[in-house]
Design goal:
The structure is a single chain. The chain has 300 residues and is an alpha/beta fold. The protein folds into three domains: 83 residues, Winged helix-like DNA-binding domain superfamily/Winged helix DNA-binding domain (Arc Repressor Mutant, subunit A, Orthogonal Bundle); 95 residues, D-Maltodextrin-Binding Protein, domain 2; 108 residues, Periplasmic binding protein-like II (D-Maltodextrin-Binding Protein, domain 2, 3-Layer(aba) Sandwich), CATH 3.40.190.10. It is built from ten helices and eleven strands. Strands 3, 4, 5, 6, 7, 8, 9, 10 and 11 form a nine-stranded mixed beta sheet that branches. A two-stranded antiparallel ribbon has the order 1-2. Helix 5 links the parallel strand 3 and strand 4. The relative contact order is 0.13.
């Protein structure tokens, strides 16, 4: 098998075909004519093929020479792209970032956040993956994602995290709900099978269940759903009550309904912390912090 030729020799070959002159090709490659000529001869020896028929007065590319010129161009283009990709990786705000985000956050913060990012860093490109926390963490650890926006606390192992903002969880109910004993919505006044939650796997469910022992297992409805929007509609028709994030309420998820947001005593105000999570090996801690600062401003 022939030895693999160097990129430099492929550059000589392509430039010689372009300019059809050894002297001008050598000048364009910033080498002497003898160096370029020796490089072409060495390339032919490596490939054991005549690429150029030449004498003292003329040169003609052979059929295989022409075919290899085209392939050399493709290789050089791919090599240039390879180098450009590496260079851009050092220019964080001109690169493509793969962002993972959980569905109980994404629709409520992304519109404003993406708008801000496009103004601050117009050359930054984001690819968005929406999924539950467990799946996102697996993808991050596997190198398939670069940054996550998730709700904390959550066991993230050795990954790094950055607190962004606090997101209170608010109790919502129908104005004349049959699931409340009184208008004061103390947790012990919630009826049996009255609390609607998201399905297992959603960290919002776990945050509600784990924060301050809000209610007993008997108060949790045995039916569940995959989205906050569905929860809202179920509450709208008084199929139960639920806790939903403040970011969802602020974004207008209750607009067009007569759903009430309960006034709760301090001990009954669960919350979650929204934060960035990324790999400890990432060289872009400062840049990720800057992205976080922009998101914080969106929530102020």
């Amino acid at each position: 098998m022939a030895h693999t030729p160097s990129i430099k020799k492929l550059q000589y070959l392509v430039k010689l075909h372009e300019l059809q002159h050894f002297g001008r090709a050598a000048e364009a490659c910033f080498v002497s004519q003898s160096t370029l000529s020796a490089g072409i001869s060495n390339l032919e020896s490596q490939l054991d093929r005549v690429l150029i028929e030449r004498d003292r007065h003329s040169m003609v590319f052979t059929p295989v020479g022409l075919e290899l010129v085209n392939q050399a161009k493709e290789i050089l283009n791919a090599t240039n792209k390879f180098v450009e990709t590496a260079e851009k990786s050092g220019q964080f705000f001109e690169s493509t970032i793969r962002l993972g985000i959980i569905p109980t956050i994404a629709p409520y913060i992304l519109p404003k956040y993406l708008d801000k990012l496009s103004k601050h860093h117009p050359k930054l490109s984001l690819l968005i993956k929406e999924d539950i926390t467990e799946n996102l963490l697996k993808a991050l650890n596997a190198g398939e994602l670069d940054i996550l926006i998730i709700a904390l606390p959550y066991d993230i192992g050795t990954l790094k995290s950055l607190y962004l903002f606090s997101d209170p969880l608010r109790l919502i109910h129908h104005p004349k709900s049959v699931h409340l004993s009184k208008l004061r919505t103390e947790n012990n006044e919630l009826q049996k099978n009255s609390v609607l939650l998201l399905e297992d796997g959603h960290c919002l469910r776990n945050h509600i269940l784990s924060t301050g022992q809000l209610f007993s297992s008997e108060q949790i409805n045995s039916f569940s759903t995959n989205s906050i929007s569905s929860i809202v509609q179920m509450v709208r028709y008084d199929m139960g009550v639920s806790y939903i994030p403040e970011v969802a309420i602020a974004s207008g998820v209750l607009n067009g309904t007569d759903i009430k947001v309960a006034d709760q005593v301090d001990t009954h105000k669960p919350k979650r912390e929204i934060g960035f999570v990324w790999r400890e090996s990432s060289p872009f801690d400062d840049e990720i912090t800057q992205l976080g600062d922009i998101l914080k401003k969106c929530q102020q």
